[in-house]
Write a structure and sequence with these properties.
Number of strands: 4
Number of domains: 1
Membrane topology: Multi-pass membrane protein
Radius of gyration: 24 Å
CATH architecture: Up-down Bundle
Largest sheet: 2 strands, antiparallel
Shape: globular
Keywords: Cell membrane, Membrane, Nitrate assimilation, Transmembrane, Transmembrane helix, Transport
Family: Belongs to the major facilitator superfamily. Nitrate/nitrite porter (TC 2.A.1.8) family.
CATH superfamily: MFS general substrate transporter like domains
Strand order of the largest sheet: 1-2
Number of helices: 19
GO molecular function: nitrate transmembrane transporter activity; nitrite transmembrane transporter activity
Region (Disordered): 1-21
Length: 480
């Protein structure tokens, strides 16, 4: 673990070591911002963070919006469902698009297009208007795919799990940031003399502006892959070694021979282009992809569902102010500062000791404990202190499970990593949809919804035994 953590920092002036076969970086340096590797890494998580901020901007304002639009809990939950469900289709489409045109343009396009419905959400005057706006806001959830795809292009197998986990986790912090800031910004408008009717609408313009700024920056200041533009991917830099060959019969005469050293080191190398439909077919034909989709539905899917309901639950159950509920609710998202990353670190560390079996074991344990503490949350909400403690614990395991899941994804089939990333990411949204429906069903008894979801997650954890990656399973059962 200490070795993995040691790969995160270094002198920003020193170049990153790279795999000569792929030009992918073999370590991270979080205080380095130079192109191509670390610049792209930082924009990958920043783009996803900004998208998450816009995607869930409505959630911390739920008490005000419900009152202003005269919505009951069931009606507001319908808008939660549609904001998650629309992302499913967008994510599936975005995966092959990353394979075709590269992650930089895909990320920028999603941010710029997504800024429009975020800014226009304030025009909603009824349930239907809110649902239409949140349907199109769901496009921002698809930014997870270029975020992860981008880091896969930039970092080699020994560190890609950590890179994916940190980028995804820091991006998911957008939910915590929006919980923290949106109520404060709204209160600022109210203190400035605006009515609550106008204040929540004006507040939503802020994340829309951020989306535009970051989207343009992605286009102007980043690279798709180590070689620069996406069309140049796979053009590996061949190292020429000049070897001096001395003629034994003439010590004064030197012959220089030039040899090309082949790149034998294999990892998550960039494969030749694959058609979109072919990439989908290959990915969907792999049973591991289906299992990972289910697993991710029980990690990121849980996170999405909880992000949508947490502030409203705290507001009503503990009779808090909207600002206080948002502050406490922000803990769930802000845990991503380190929780998802440690899932990737643990996956990489276990892999260095046990190979792919280590990654599968980490996945099993993290998911099981995440489900266990979701189950226990039902019994912790008798006091606010108890609820916060268990909230923090299950937040850690749920989010670490996201990191450990994408510690496995790059090794399933590197040739179609974009399609696989898109499908697994879509699995997260399918889970978010299912669990949001469960929260709607238990609108009057939200703690029971947490218990039900916890049981599901604990059960799915054991599907780790069905995964077979690089020809390896978590446990082999041989006939005697």
């Amino acid at each position: 673990m200490s070795k993995a953590l040691g790969k995160l920092f270094g002198n920003p002036r020193n170049p990153l070591p790279t795999n000569p076969a792929t030009q992918k970086a073999e370590r991270l340096n979080l205080i380095k911002f130079s192109r191509p590797h670390m610049r792209s890494f930082h924009f990958a998580w920043l783009g996803f963070l900004t998208a998450f901020t816009g995607w869930f901007a409505v959630a911390p304002l739920a008490p005000t919006i419900k009152k202003d639009l005269k919505l009951n809990p069931f009606q507001f939950n319908d808008s939660n469902i549609i904001s998650v469900s629309s992302t499913i289709a967008f994510r599936i489409l975005v995966g092959p698009l990353c394979d075709a045109i590269g992650p930089r343009k895909v990320m920028a396009t999603l941010l710029l297009v997504g800024s429009i419905p975020v800014g226009l959400t304030g025009l909603a005057n009824d349930r239907e208007g809110l649902m239409i706006a949140r349907f199109f806001v769901g496009i921002l959830g698809a930014t997870f795919v270029p975020c992860q795809f981008w880091t896969m292009q930039m970092f080699d197998s020994n560190v890609v799990g950590s890179a994916n986990a940190i980028a995804g986790g820091w991006g998911n912090m957008g939910a915590g940031i929006t919980y923290l800031l949106m109520p404060v910004i709204m209160q600022w408008f109210v203190d400035g003399g605006r009515s609550t009717h106008d204040a929540w609408r004006l507040t939503l313009v802020v994340p829309a502006c951020l989306l535009i700024v970051v989207g343009i920056a992605c286009l102007l200041f980043t690279d798709d892959c180590p070689e620069g533009k996406w069309k140049n991917r796979g053009k590996l830099v061949e190292e020429e070694k000049i070897v001096e060959v001395h003629d034994a019969g003439d010590v004064d005469k030197e012959k220089k021979a030039t040899t090309i050293e082949p790149a034998n080191k294999q990892s998550t190398a960039t494969a030749p282009p694959t058609s979109k439909l072919r990439a989908f077919y290959i990915a969907l034909s792999n049973p591991n992809v289906w299992v990972l989709m289910v697993m991710y539905s029980c990690t990121f899917g849980v996170e999405l569902a909880v992000d949508n309901v947490l502030a409203d639950f705290l507001f009503n159950h503990f009779h808090l102010t909207q600002k206080t509920a948002g502050l406490i609710g922000s803990l769930f998202g802000l845990m991503n500062l380190f929780s998802r990353a440690t899932g990737g670190f643990l996956s990489d560390f276990a892999s260095s000791r046990l190979g792919i079996r280590g990654r599968l074991l980490v996945q099993l344990l993290i998911m099981f404990f995440g489900g266990l503490f979701l189950f226990l949350f039902k019994f912790a909400v008798t006091t606010l202190t108890g609820a916060i403690i268990v909230l923090v614990i299950f937040s850690y395991f749920v989010q670490a499970g996201c990191g450990s899941s994408f510690g496995i994804v790059p090794f399933v089939n590197p040739a179609v990593s974009g399609a696989i990333s898109g499908l697994v990411g879509a699995g997260g949204n399918i889970g978010g949809l299912i669990f949001t429906i469960i929260f709607k069903k238990y609108s009057e008894d939200t703690p029971t919804a947490f218990m039900v979801i916890g049981c599901v997650v604990m059960t799915v954890a054991f599907t780790a035994f069905t995964l077979k990656v690089d020809g390896m399973r978590l446990a082999s059962f041989r006939k005697s």
